[in-house]
Amino acid sequence: MVYQIFPDCFNNGNPHGEIQGRKKDSFIYATKEDSPYYIKDEHGDIACWDFFGGNLEGIRQKIPYLKDLGVTAIYLNPIFQASSNHRYDTQDFMKIDPMLGTEEDFKNLIKDLHKNRIALILDGVFNHVGADSKYFLSAVTDKTGPYYSWFNFINYPTKYQSWWGVTTLPEVNKNNAGYQNFICGPDGVLAKWTRMHIDGWRLDVADELPMPLLREIRERLQNEDCHVLIGEVWEDASHKFVNSEFRTYMAGDNLTGTMNYPVRNFIVSLLQANNETEEVAALNDLEKLVENYPKAFLENCLNNIGTHDAARIKTVLGGDEQLVALAFGLLFSVPGVPYIYYGDEAGLEGDKDPDNRRYFPWGKESDFLEKEVKELAHWRRENRVLVDGKVGYVKIDYGINALVRYNQRELVIYCYNKTDQDMILDAGEFQTYCLPEKIGELVSDILDQESVAQKAYLLKTFKLDRNEKE
Fold it and tell me: Of 150, 174, 344, 345, which residue has the fewest beta carbons closer than 10 angstroms?
């Protein structure tokens, strides 16, 4: 299970909550319960960045919590020096943001994570930098300097290509050999941080990075014995075109997986469906994804129901924690790696950015949801078929469905009931999809006459013998 941490909003590990590395034109929230809020100028640009003051030492101190939850890897939003709280506006790729701590703090975090068998994935933001970065400031003051060619100027020095027109995020010329060497060279960004024994990278806006650069990144990571490269791709990555160019993400020489946002769409659609037709459509969408992705690629994708770019799952599901628990169950049942956005397991709510970046509610967590996640994480650890098994479905009734994972040795069943009534299952009403006949019959026998409480689920495991596999 991968756990995403937005560092500013997770935990402050300083003795008295001190905040180091305070930034110009920023403010610190008065309490950890404050709602995130942007202060914008007359042009709609953010004029004053907001901070809670979370840091790397705070994450290190919460390793026991992460381990108890069942986390096996954490993914950190950007940690390099920047002006904003999200740090996607990098100022210096070679420095830890002073508000987060020091390189020594980072090394201590890695060491203690690995002691507890928890891997670390960093966020690589290589498509753009901050307008106040050392690179861009040099480019706009010195045409002869080393960084001028990194940027695409339209009318030097005031008009330039930027990410989606956001002028505070000048876009880098990713085809520039000097920039590519800076990122991928033997003394570059990837080499420096990967040699500290991190375990993987997640690439921001991977679909805006040229395929040759993706291949260079993968090659550098392989040279550093690092084999996880996850791309931010919001759509079905098997059919992705950028500027009419087919993106060969699954060729084996670039990404190892993606942030699997279509799984979030599937889970939300399934739980918000108004009838059985809509439920079948959601199940079909998942099956298309399973069919389109190579097995190894699919199993390495990070399946999420929430990230820093989307409304919190509890808010999306109307504040109903029982439905959130069903969403977690579906997340742990589908092929791919379960991925949890910090605080979702604690019942944190929030609309879209910035409201989805509230501070973690330490001491006020949802005991119910945390318990559900722990049990589901244990279930996945104990049943290998949830990692490498095939997937099929049983349509039982509106609001009642089952996901089935199976291989040559065993099968597991996740059956949920999102309705407000307890139900006794009747195999005579079952419809199976994407299951071999023998497996479908066995699942029907297992579930027949089972009781499923309202807004609850059943977990079933079964060992297969030779006759049942045929």
Answer: 174
Helix (H, G, I), strand (E, B) or coil at 468: helix
- Given CA atoms 355, 356, 358, 364 in this order, what sign does their dihedral have? positive
Cα separations in angstroms, 258 against 27, 94, 106, 126: 35, 25, 25, 16
Residue of 175, 95, 177 lying closest to 130 (CA atoms): 95
Looking from the CA of 113 toward its CB, the CA atoms found within 13 Å total 28
Which residues form the catalytic set?
Answer: 204, 232
> Which residues sit opposite 412 in a β-bridge?
405, 461
Separation of alpha carbons 456 and 462, rounded Å: 20
Q: Which residues of 404-423 are buried (b: 16+ CB within 10 A; e: fewer)?
A: bbbbeebbbbbbbbbeeeeb
The two tokens of residue 74 are 């954490």
Pairing of strands 80-82, 90-96: antiparallel
Among the listed residues 141, 139, 219, the one whose alpha carbon sits nearest the alpha carbon of residue 179: 139
Tell whether pTM > 0.70: yes
Question: How distant is the alpha carbon of residue 299 from its chain centre?
Answer: 14
How many Å apart are CA 202 and CA 225, to the nearest integer? 16
CA-to-CA separations, 427 to 405, 419, 442, in angstroms, rounded: 19, 18, 11
Residues of the chain predicted below pLDDT 70: 466-470
| pLDDT value of residue 43 | 85
Residue 470 confidence (pLDDT): 42
Q: How far is CA 115 from CA 12, 119, 150, 195, in A?
A: 21, 10, 40, 17
C-beta of residue 402 within 8 angstroms of C-beta of residue 413: yes
CA–CA gap between residue 352 and residue 285 (Å, rounded)? 24
